[in-house]
Amino acid sequence: MVPERDEEPVATATDGLAAADLAPALAVAAVARRLGVAPATLRTWDRRYGLGPSEHSAGAHRRYSAVDVDRLLVMRRLTLDGVAPGEAARVALATDVRPSGAAGGSATGPAGDVPHQPAAPGRTPGLALLVATPTALVDAALAGDADRCARLLRLGGSSATGSSAGHGGVAGWWTTLVEPALADLARRTVVDTPGVDAELTLRAAALEALRAHAGRPPAVGASVVLVLVPAGEPRPLVVHALAAALAADGADARIVGGPVGPHHAVELVVMTRAAAVVTVGRRLDPDLSTVTRLAQDRPDVPQFVMLPAAAWDAVPVERSVHVARSFTGLLHEVLAVTGGASEG
Predict the structure, then answer these.
(1) Which interval of the chain is the signal sequence (predicted)?
(2) Which of 61, 100, 149, 308 is such that its CA lies 20 to 30 A from the CA of 228?
């Protein structure tokens, strides 16, 4: 019996073409959605810096190729990190972008890795940047990728791969990146393998980012702000973000852990000489007995309470008690009474 020969490979019309030649060109609206910017921003970058679409066919609008999009990802990442647009465009245009399948390169990763990028001012060359978006963060958390979460969440401008430095300090980091990602995860039904918990992965990375960002201890004599959680509630991640944002503006923010009864809360205020007390809860039926007791025994100490809107009616009506309706609003109000100036 004569053994069968392997079939000869059949040449096709696409043989030898780079992946960039095969990838579909994108309209400005599609690219704007991918980058999270307005179409007008892309047109401005095209007009001012030459970062526009290169694909063109007769009778049709110009479209963005895979290489064009990767350059725009570099531009977007650098501007988020605080690099001036002109300098960011210069770096983006100088970037050796190689779309997937092109010789010697790999594609932009699912969470926005940008390969072969020259170092931006103050950064270490050879390390990929990440585009820090809620979607990228959720993807990393669902994959149980703690390292990628950490890189996406890194705060401050000194990191070589830090991706969230351009989100406007801790307040912007929380309101535009972490909080939306947590809300997205809360809406999903997830089947995890043992040892993988998307929310815990995200929380752990966020706490590490806040620890690394904390820096020096507060100055001697800084205004003390106590951050409490209503009795019976777990401590939410937002209290750490709030304390870090307050500390960044010079306050001595202290998160109170463990059970704290009304009498104990009054003692803590006296012991620490607190300039303000913040209570952050998530339940619709919060136990605010501590808020009531503090308002009665220490009316000279301003209190700020942040709860879901449906629970606002539960807040005691006292001269020293104020309802905060948002993270940013709460930060501004507390800093107003402690002498700080809101960051970012």
Answers:
(1) none
(2) 149
